[in-house]
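Inverse folding, one chain.
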């Protein structure tokens, strides 16, 4: 593939974690639609807006940072440790939120049913 014909632009930026300058080559690729597979997952970004989720993430992050020394470099640490931890954290958060939603839904439907039933009973006792 001829990259020169696909080049869109070049940009100098700072590399993550190292602070070293890097050249970023932007190229145009003709790819088919993305397919879902075992390695792809989409995080629910609504969790990032939730204050409790952000606090939990910050607490977990401090413990994850301590694990860097157990890996040869930061990329390996990120790929083998942090990605899995982030995925598990957000799966657990989504599961807990789903359970809370089911509890709230049950409470609301019970409350509506009880209210309607109360109105029916009071009308039978005291018709207008």
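Residues assigned per position:
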């Amino acid at each position: 593939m001829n990259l020169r014909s696909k080049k869109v632009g070049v940009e100098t930026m700072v590399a993550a974690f190292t602070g070293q300058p890097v050249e970023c080559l932007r190229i145009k690729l003709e790819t088919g639609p993305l397919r879902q597979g075992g390695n792809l997952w989409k995080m629910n970004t609504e969790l990032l807006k939730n204050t409790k989720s952000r606090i939990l993430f910050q607490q977990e992050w401090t413990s994850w940072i301590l694990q860097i020394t157990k890996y040869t470099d930061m990329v390996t640490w990120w790929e083998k440790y942090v990605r899995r931890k982030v995925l598990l954290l957000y799966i657990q958060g989504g599961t807990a939120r789903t359970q809370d939603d089911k509890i709230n839904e049950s409470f609301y439907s019970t409350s509506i049913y009880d209210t309607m039933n109360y109105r029916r009973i009071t009308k039978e006792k005291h018709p207008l």
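Residues 43-125 form one domain. DSSP finds four helices and two strands in the chain.
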